[in-house]
Amino acid sequence: MSSPAPSAVVPPLGILPLARTAVDRGSDRRVAPDLFEQIRENPGTRVMYMAGGKALISDTEVVLAPVAEAGFGDGPVYLGRILADAQEPAGTDVVLVTLAEEDPLLETDGARWAALREVAVLLGELDAALFVQAAAVSNWHAVHTHCPRCGAPTVPEQGGWVRRCTEDGSQHFPRTDPAIIVAVTDPDDRILLGSAAAWKGNRYSTLAGFVEPGESLEGAVIREIAEESGLVVHSPQYLGSQPWPFPCSLMLGFTARTEDPAAAVHDGVEISDVRWFTRDELRDAVGSGEITIASGISIARNLIERWYGGPIAEPETGAGV
């Protein structure tokens, strides 16, 4: 059956920039062996090009081009049918074509190649949904060219959403790695932010980590916060989620609370510093440029601003990504 329409139930964090849905992914259509032959003959079918993690962008829209005379080339991926959009009719089929390198011949009418991080906050609902989906599945194809069981080459099937081993016939599906990200608060309603050792500059954000095998989301919240900050937290509450296709994560946003804020200490490995902030302290630190915080496309920024009570103003130079 076709993908269901988006739910009317909105999570506490709202609809996040990379979590918008405007495409019927058409899982029922993917199984047709002649899918691409069918939709190639339709003059309304559109192609989204990607190369090196970048897509063609025109102004604030993803370029959806007509099918080239040569067709879709190797390894196309069926992204689905547009549900509703001002630029393209509802029901338009969209196919992802990943190129080995950027093709300057496609850069017509001011179109340019851009990465998702660069343009995500500028994109509308359809364009953001397509770009996130395309980036995630393109990343998966790039690194799953061989069977993890026997090492033989794999080939794409079912509209590009399955890879089959050419030797043992096993099927392999796109992976998604769940990760929790947490706004930790204390009895004075301060928020804990950390600076990762790998980050440049004085950048701070909410703490996060991957869910381990056999672990619940709540268990991951408690374990990760203890590992990275030394804090014992309780009462984890889920607020919302957002795909993070860099390369294949799903970020699951939580709040949690600690009763012993003085115990906070960075782990010295992944986290180089942790700090408590009141709302006034965070506003002043960001406004003065003393620190930067996560950008608007991230769930971290939404968690921080939900705690803060609204947007946080920053210097002209902007926030960290």
From TrEMBL:
Organism: Arthrobacter citreus
Catalytic activity: a 5'-end NAD(+)-phospho-ribonucleoside in mRNA + H2O = a 5'-end phospho-adenosine-phospho-ribonucleoside in mRNA + beta-nicotinamide D-ribonucleotide + 2 H(+)
Enzyme class, broadest EC rank: hydrolase
Cofactor: Zn(2+); Mg(2+)
InterPro entries reported for this sequence: NAD-cap_RNA_hydrolase_NudC, NADH_PPase-like_N, NudC-like_C, NUDIX_hydrolase-like_dom_sf, NUDIX_hydrolase_CS, NUDIX_hydrolase_dom, Znr_NADH_PPase
Domain of life of the source: Bacteria
Originating gene: nudC
E.C. no: 3.6.1.22
Domain Nudix hydrolase: from-to ranges: 174-299
PANTHER family, sorted: NAD-CAPPED RNA HYDROLASE NUDT12 (PTHR42904:SF6), NUDIX HYDROLASE, NUDC SUBFAMILY (PTHR42904)
Protein name: NAD(+) diphosphatase
Family annotation (SUPFAM superfamilies): Nudix (SSF55811)
Keyword line: Hydrolase, Magnesium, Metal-binding, NAD
Pfam families: NUDIX, NUDIX-like, Zn_ribbon_NUD
Family: Belongs to the Nudix hydrolase family. NudC subfamily.
Molecular-function annotations in GO: hydrolase activity
